[in-house]
Specification:
Blueprint lengths: L19 E4 L6 E3 L1 H8 L6 H10 L1 H7 L5 H12 L5 H9 L2 E4 L3 H9 L3 E6 L3 H6 L9 E4 H4 L6 H11 L6 E5 L2 H9 L3 E4 L3 H10 L5
Helix pairs in contact: 3-4, 4-5
Amino acid sequence: MSLANDPVPAPPASASAPRLLLFDLGGVVLENAGFERLNALLPEPADVASLKSRWLRSPAVRSFELGLVTPSDFATAFMAEWRIAGTPAAFLDEFASWPIGLYPGAAALLARLRQRHRTACLSNSNVLHWRRFDGFREHFDVSLSSHLLGVIKPDAECFDKALHVLGVPAADVVFFDDSPLNVDAASALGIDARHVDGYAVLERVLHAEGLLS
């Protein structure tokens, strides 16, 4: 299976413009009800920041988003790890619906950015969610997912592999993610990484940096 959409030539850009804008999906351009719905399933609900950190470190999540296990095996392992009641089949039905879709206005914003910049996404995702949105190929020049790359954020290997596939040095990338762990990991490799917690924040950052002008 291909790691990414077929590369396309970079659009014209000024000498000062970055060569590549790299986006996380959930919580940045994609509305995701996952943590809210997950909290409703847990025996002891937690704040969103704690859930995000635990999610990124979860052995069950990492295995699934690395493409190493089937959806059924993921559901069984995840439910045991997080102490969720019910059946794996019912959980998978719920899990598949967590990503809602692009935030209102996000598709138009991405299309506008592609007129001046090369764009890509780098997401920790899985076969169920990726297939549901057809790999987001209509919105980015290149779409990358952990389950196809075989590496996962916040691991340094994930960013290294993404840079290799995209054919750009770290210094030529501006990266947007809603997880501080991912932002810190990208920054450590020399990527210009920005923490954007939600689409409204992303819009403000893009305007403030002159990337939408």
